[in-house]
Amino acid sequence: MMDLFKNYWFWSTLSAWVIAQTIKIIIGLIKKKRRSLVTILCGSGGMPSAHTAATISLTTALIITEGLTSPLPIISGLFALVIMTDATAVRFESERHARFLNRMVEEEREPAPEDGKLFKTSLGHTVSQVAVGFAIGVACAILLSLLPFPALVK
Hints:
The chain is an all-alpha fold and about 150 residues long. The protein has one domain. It has five helices and no strands. It has helices at about 10-30, 35-40, 50-65, 70-105, 125-145. Helix 1 packs antiparallel against helix 3 and helix 1 (about 10-30) packs across helix 5. The chain is elongated, with a radius of gyration of 19 Å.
């Protein structure tokens, strides 16, 4: 377990996620005061994309340490691409479907779901939210790689 705390890839990924989530919490509390901290922290969507920040940070850290001849950054990069595509395209379409279904329920053309709640309409990210998450991920991996921590295994 102690090796985990010396792992550059772990700290790079975790720091990107924490920074993105912290920014998301601050923005969420400023813009939408009605939302709780738990909703902002555990919900999906919002500025920036923490999933993108974490996966891109891991990919960048692997590129820094392993180079592009290793399969690890390629695998991580493909995983990050799937995350970013899901966050923007797939979830965006899910949001559109949820809005349509909610409108059908509100107009009483369809019965409400069994639990009586409408479908969640804030699921995905905009391209700019993913882009900011991307920038945070790259910055965290690069900055952490420059810090002189002898105990950090790279």
